[in-house]
Specification:
The chain is an alpha/beta fold and 702 residues long. Helices cover 39% and strands 17% of the residues. Helix 10 runs antiparallel to helix 12 (305-318) and helix 16 packs across helix 23. The structure holds adenosine-5'-diphosphate and magnesium ion.
Length: 702
């Protein structure tokens, strides 16, 4: 009964009706009473204080004054017609101006009583004035019993405003709604939690987020609602994880045997970093537990994830299992295959390779070798997911650069055995801690937070058009020294509107300054077919090309240690994580590498901050944190499809403490009462059920 009321179509709220309901749906995705209840104001105007005119200093803020109109006159003709009133509060005078509804205003003003006027004072000809102030009766109260101290502002749209749904109209409807439904707002948190952390009740929070009685209550209301947003996400993710670890047994890798040991002692070409060692330990504990592993491995570009994964695949072999590594593109798969076969050169480990372009004959042989267990490690692309790729005993799946693979594809991998393989998802897109906790809260996370020794930090410089000739001279020097150069552009085709220095124009310019045959220039962009791209890329890898011009298609993973310069054109048009990824294409060899960020002269403040961050740090996690602060989580790679991030109030960048706090709390509660069976947890269980239904209980792999 109660839930039904909240689910009433918005159309039936008094004052809405079918036409406005349409607007609500189309413009704000508000379908039900409940949706409007959770349509929070973006800001409140503080009407709790009355200022004095004498103390006016700066423009820009809305404020109110209490006083009387001493005189007024109507000036101008037709469209310049306006009413100008002198308003005095005993400390000074401010001019009030109205351009319309003059009759009504005049009528109000002639009442000769005390008013509160509310608006944004501006200085004009050294006099303070206020255009279209609101006139308020000092005695006025709102209909929900609290003084209208804080007026809520709701975001609206042009279309909605035309249909009469501006902020003010929405705020009136919210009052109607609150009056009608406040009795059915039921609590979702346990009494314990509310008491212990001195939270507002849900009902108080919802009333106060719209119509706060004071600034303090507004803050408390926001805190309570953020708390709910974050807490229930964590409760959901941790419940999923719990179900998963309880119900899913995994292959037991109980030993570290000859393959691993022989390789580690005799062939490992370098000392592992401490971070790599730590991660291997973490993963060994997982795969030795008898539970199925679902782990995210984060590590900045160049941190050495591949060798880490390889060592784990050797442990799999020692325990009689096959493994595979799946890369998002053919080029990356090829690189993995080449580097892994090279690393394993004298080891008795058989490595297979499978991509979309593998020939039928080779495929058939491969299929057989997979099924009879001859192949220990299979490397490839999406082609590994095909149904006819059948393993004898798949124990470990490594997925490189996870954001290119969808959830279903991973689930497919998972089904290749009766007992699902351990899954290690690797990503070089650093994800800030709070985001990882929220987005991958049902996965375990390992982090390689250290680069191999001896890497020279990439020198990053921000250059302008006027530096271009100098920059070209620098490229010529690097190429003369045997190095190669990437140049990346944001667009493929010229866009007249945005005046971009695009790939084709860039090519013409480069071709003039770097003439054939002394220089070979290649182009790669997203509109090319995969094999055309691969052809050009391979020429670059083989050093037949010195300069590779491309769009962002080269962003992920490619390893050309001889390339020492990354030029990014129109760098202001790229996101921070993307810039960092691009930069990670160089600095992979022993030589000093450079990242040159070219931009136009005038830049927005945000662009400047981004470029500054790039020139100041090479640390991917620091970059990710700055990115999260600047842009919010929705823009970070791989997060768009998630559905866990549509918070209304919580902000993963600003509310880090609350994210960690709610996660720990959810953990504690589930440790004590995994199924939320305890009577005190009833309300939480019920709401969690609702949340689960809303989001769907998506697969066991994330
Ligand atoms: P990513 O984490 O970006 O995938 P890779 O696995 O491609 O990085 O490693 C980058 C380079 O660093 C490779 O050439 C690899 O051989 C090398 N490398 C990895 N670990 C170490 C280490 N501990 N010491 C020295 N070089 C290493
Ligand atoms: Mg890699």
């Amino acid at each position: 009964m109660q839930a039904n009321l909240l689910e009433t179509p918005i159309e039936y709220l008094k004052g809405v009706g079918p036409k406005k309901a349409e607007i609500f749906k189309k413009e704000f995705q508000i379908f039900t009473f409940q949706d409007l209840l959770h349509y929070y104001p973006y800001r409140h105007v503080d009407k709790s204080q009355i200022h004095t005119i004498r103390s006016l200093e700066a423009e820009g803020a809305f404020m109110q004054f209490k006083g009387r109109v001493t005189s007024y006159e109507i000036l101008g003709e037709r469209h310049t017609k306006r009413l100008v009133a002198q308003f005095n509060d005993g400390t000074g005078t401010i001019e009030l101006v109205w351009f319309n509804s003059l009759k009504w205003v005049e009528n109000e003003l002639t009442q000769k009583r005390e008013f509160i006027v509310f608006g944004k004072p501006t200085l004009f000809n050294r006099r303070w004035n206020m255009a279209h102030p609101e006139i308020i009766d000092p005695e006025k109260q709102s209909n929900i019993g609290v003084p209208m101290a804080f007026q809520p502002l709701y975001s609206s749209s042009e279309k909605a405003k035309k249909s009469g749904l501006d902020s003010r109209a929405i705020s009136k409807l919210v009052i109607t709604l609150l009056n009608q439904i406040q009795i059915v707002i039921t609590e979702r948190l346990s009494e314990d939690i509310i008491q212990n952390y001195k939270l507002l009740s849900l009902k108080e929070a919802l009333l106060n987020v719209h119509y706060p009685a004071s600034q303090e209550l507004l803050s408390k209301a926001m805190l309570r609602l953020k708390f709910d947003e974050l807490f229930f996400v964590q409760l959901r993710l941790l419940t999923q994880k719990l179900v998963h670890t309880q119900k899913t047994s995994g292959h037991l890798f109980s030993v570290v045997g000859d393959t691993f040991n022989a390789y580690y002692k005799n062939y490992l070409p370098f000392e592992l970093t401490d971070a790599q060692k730590r991660v291997i330990k973490e993963i060994r504990a997982d795969v030795g537990s008898g539970k199925q592993m679902n782990r995210l491995l984060q590590g900045d570009v160049g941190s050495g994830k591949t060798i880490t994964a390889l060592l784990l695949m050797l442990i799999a072999k020692d325990n009689g299992y096959q493994s595979c590594i799946m890369a998002p593109t053919e080029i990356l798969a090829t690189q993995h295959f080449e580097s892994i076969t090279k690393l394993l050169k004298d080891m008795p480990v058989k490595v297979g390779f499978l991509t979309g372009s593998s020939k039928t004959k080779a495929r058939n042989v491969l299929h057989e070798e997979l099924q009879n267990g001859e192949i220990d490690i299979l490397i490839g692309t999406h082609a590994l997911l095909e149904d006819n790729v059948i393993f004898k005993n798949l124990g470990l799946v490594v997925i490189d650069e996870q954001h290119r693979f969808g959830v279903e594809q991973r689930a497919k991998m998972w089904k290749k055995n009766d007992i699902p393989p351990h899954i290690l998802v690797m990503t070089a897109t650093p994800i800030p801690r709070t985001l990882a906790m929220t987005l991958y809260g049902d996965l375990d996370v390992s982090i390689i937070d250290e680069l191999p020794k001896g890497r020279k930090p990439i020198v990053t410089k921000h250059l302008y058009e006027k530096n271009r000739l100098g920059m070209f001279g620098f490229l010529q020097k690097e190429i003369a020294a045997g190095r190669q150069v990437f140049v990346v552009y944001p667009l493929i085709k010229e866009s007249e509107k945005m005046d971009l220095f695009d790939l084709m124009a860039g090519y013409d310019l480069m071709a003039d300054c770097f003439p054939i045959p002394q220089y070979q220039i290649g182009i790669v962009h997203g509109k090319m077919k995969a094999d055309e791209k691969d052809f050009v890329m391979n020429r670059f890898v083989k050093k037949e090309i010195q300069i590779l011009l491309s769009t962002t298609v080269i962003e992920v993973g490619i390893d050309v240690p001889n390339a020492s310069v990354m030029v990014i054109e129109n760098a202001e048009r790229f996101g921070l994580s993307q810039l960092h990824q691009l930069r990670g294409r160089v600095g992979r060899g022993a030589d000093q590498s450079y990242c040159l960020l070219m931009t136009k002269h005038e830049l927005s403040i945000e662009s400047k901050q981004r470029l500054k961050a790039m020139t100041e740090t090479n640390d991917g996690f620091e970059i990710a944190n700055i990115d999260l602060r600047l842009r919010g989580p929705g823009d970070l790679q791989g997060t768009r499809q998630s559905g866990v991030l549509d918070f209304k109030l919580a902000d993963l960048a600003k509310d880090e403490k609350l994210v960690v706090f709610t996660r720990n709390l959810a953990k504690e509660i589930l440790e004590e009462d995994p199924d939320l069976q305890h009577p005190k947890n009833q309300s939480m269980r019920q709401y969690l059920g609702e949340v689960m239904r809303r989001y769907g209980f998506f697969g066991n792999i994330s």
